[in-house]
Amino acid sequence: MPNFNTLRTARKSRVNSSRWAILFILTLGLSTAWKTADANQPQNTPSQAQILLTQSKPQNAPPQLKTLLTQIDAAANRRNIKGVMNFYSPRFVHGDGLNRSSMEQAVNSLWKNYPTLRYSTKLESWSSQGDSIIADTVTNIVGSPSANNNKLGMNATIKSRQRIVNGKIIRQDILSERTELSSGVNPPKVDINLPDQLKAGQRYYFDAIVNEPLGDSFLLGAALDEPVQPGKYLNPTPVDLELLSAGGIFKVGRAPTAPGSQWISAVLVRGNGMTMITQRVPVVGR
After folding, report:
1. Where are the alpha helices (DSSP H) in the chain?
2. CA separation (Å) from 66 to 9, 61, 102?
3. What per-residue string of b and e applies to 13-36 under the rule 16 or more CB within 10 Å gives b?
4. d(CA 8, CA 223)
5. In degrees to the nearest 10, what's the CA dihedral of 4, 30, 248, 272?
6. Are 108 and 29 spatial neighbours (Cβ–Cβ below 8 Å)?
7. What is the CATH number of the domain that holds 170?
8. Which of 15, 50, 243, 264 has the maximal Cβ count within 10 Å?
C-alpha cells in the first residue's frame, strides 16, 4: 500500500479483490461533496484566527442562515439535486478541485450508490464579515444498507466552514471528516488510532483494531493512504485485501513532503460482515 509498511504480520496473502472492487472504494469524498471542501482562501479573506475571534453563538444566528441550512438538508433528503445546487453560487469554490458542475455530478453518483442517505446539519458558530456570513457546521449523514446487501450502510460526520453571500454558498472548507461504511449481518466493530494532524514528512502509526473476539473466523484487511484529489470523487480506488494474522491492521506510514490532505482508510472483512473507516488528515508544513 502507498506509504505503508507492515508492522506485524505472521504471513501475507494477496486476496483476489475482484469480487469486492465495487464495495471497497474510497467513497468518503463523495459523501461530503455537497457539504465540505478544502478551498484556498481568496484575496482579502480574513485568516482563520480572525474568523475565530468574531464567531457568535448559533442561537444568535440570523434567521436566514438557519433557514438556509434547513432547506439544504431538506432538498438533499428529497434527492432534489437542482434544489441543492440552487444554494451554490455560480462562482462556487471547492478546495478539492471540483467546480459547481462536477460537484453536481458527484452528488448524483453518491445518491445512486447510497439511496437511503439522511442529512442532518447543526450550526456550531457563525460570524459576519462585510457582505459575507461565515458558518461552521457539523453534518451527520446516515444511510442503511439495502435489503439485498448490494448497498453499503454509511455513517459520516463532517465539520465544515461555509462562506455565504446573498443566500448562496460561494466557498466551503473542510475542518474534519470521518466516514464508516458497513455491510453484512455482523460487520466488525473497529477502533481507529490515527493522528488528527500530520507534519510534512512525519512518520506516524495507524492502527485499526477489531474490538471483539474473532474465534475461528478469518479476517481480511487493507489500509489505504491517498491524497485528497478531485479525480477520486468520480474514479474511486479498488482495494486488494490481505489475510491478517492478528485482530486488526497495524501500519507505520510517512506523510507526504508537501502540505495538503490525505484520506487514510482501513478495510476489515470477515465472513459475515465488512467495515471500512476513512478519515481525512491534514498535512501541514514543518
Report:
1. 28-31, 48-53, 63-77, 81-85, 100-113, 231-234
2. 51, 7, 27
3. eebebeebeebbbbbbbbbbbbbb
4. 13
5. -140
6. no
7. 3.10.450.50
8. 264
Out of 29-38, 156-165, 238-247, least confident range: 29-38
Strands 168-184 and 88-94: parallel
Question: Closest Cα partner for 176 from 92, 278, 74, 58?
Answer: 278
DSSP secondary-structure letter at 221?
Answer: E
For 65-121, the pLDDT digits (tens) are 999 999 999 999 999 999 999 999 999 988 777 778 888 888 888 888 888 899 999
Residue whose grid cell is 477502533: 191
Q: Please indicate, yes or no, whether residues 152 and 235 belong to a single structural domain of this protein.
A: no
Residue 273 belongs to domain spanning: 4-26+180-284
d(CA 158, CA 179): 8
CA separation for the pair 112, 90 (Å, rounded): 24
User: Would you call 228 helix, strand, or coil by DSSP?
Assistant: coil
Q: What is the pTM of this model?
A: 0.77
Element (H, E) at 149: none
Same structural domain for residues 123 and 163? yes
pLDDT bucket at 173, cuts 50 / 70 / 90: confident
For residue range 217-231, list pLDDT tens digits in order.
Answer: 889 999 999 988 766
Q: Which of 179, 213, 242 is the last residue of a domain?
A: 179
